[in-house]
């Protein structure tokens, strides 16, 4: 079954119908690792949160969001609560914001299972098993400890254990390692990927780091100003990015092939959909843009292994 299908998702907010997302399409198959990449403000978190039915206050949505068979935008409150408890889990940037600081880790890990009717003893056994899977050396001791007794990296492992406890169909990981130091980041990403595959959970991995996404994801969506501008297999992105924005992101990445080159930013400032120019939203920052790019939002075309929304897909800058 498809873990997540977002089709033609549009989002506006407020009386003025300020556009935030336009025609967003994202698919995550069962057990698939899918990246969602773009600069800050491009709409990644809005897209990911739509899978939980979490829309901004006063937002109007069009299109369709389906998670493991549930029509999320049409779901009632109770159905959404059930979905969040059993079928979708989320891991955020800051593990300290995800856990209750005054409750023991054991309670945090077992409450979701208890709510599903798993007996106390079995829930504890399951929590111990998960803590061992995420690499905690003393799982039994960890159950009795409080969040502040863990480092950020260790606490994020606890949160990941919690996210997998109910065997969700879909795991949303929104910048899950951004707050961690570099060595810990690599470990946590490796762990997430390994466990997600082992549990057969589909993962939407949200990050501003295209390199990282390309390295670990089966497929990657690149987002700009509230729209998907490219979709490609992770492996294809390094060699042959089709969209000029993807190319710019890749060149701006600090970690490309381990070089210690200075971080080169993408020229200009990222735009929200509301402030982006008409036609192709990237055209005012694009080295390849011509007058034709102003006429309409470019449709998607195939270029190599990519689908790219660009009239010049695959062309080299002059
Ligand atoms: N609740 C909201 N109301 C109005 N605008 C919002 C709201 N949430 C996000 N936005 C705007 O939508 C755009 C995309 O936000 P977001 O999805 O958080 O970006 P990203 O996660 O890619 O950094 C941003 O310009 C942001 O300011
Ligand atoms: Mg975000």
UniProtKB/TrEMBL annotation:
* Compartments where found: Cell membrane
Domain of life according to the entry: Bacteria
* Transmembrane portions of the chain: none
One matching Pfam family is ABC_tran
Give the bilayer topology.
Peripheral membrane protein
CDD domains in UniProt:
ABC_NikE_OppD_transporters
Check the record and name the SMART domains matching this protein.
AAA (SM00382)
Tagged with keyword ATP-binding: yes
Tell me the leader sequence span: none
Keyword match Cell membrane: yes
Per UniProt, residues of the ABC transporter domain are 4-250
For this UniProt record, give its keywords in alphabetical order, as a comma-separated list.
Answer: ATP-binding, Cell membrane, Membrane, Nucleotide-binding, Transport
InterPro entries for this protein: AAA+_ATPase (IPR003593), ABC_Ni/Peptide_Import (IPR050388), ABC_transporter-like_ATP-bd (IPR003439), ABC_transporter-like_CS (IPR017871), Oligopep_ABC_C (IPR013563), P-loop_NTPase (IPR027417)
Q: Name one GO molecular function term.
A: ATP binding
Q: Which family does it belong to?
A: Belongs to the ABC transporter superfamily.
NCBIfam families (alphabetical)? oligo_HPY
Task: Output the PANTHER family linked to this UniProt entry.
Answer: DIPEPTIDE TRANSPORT ATP-BINDING PROTEIN DPPD, OLIGOPEPTIDE TRANSPORT ATP-BINDING PROTEIN APPD
Q: What is the official name of this protein in its record?
A: ABC transporter ATP-binding protein
Q: What is the lineage of its organism?
A: Bacteria, Bacillati, Actinomycetota, Actinomycetes, Streptosporangiales
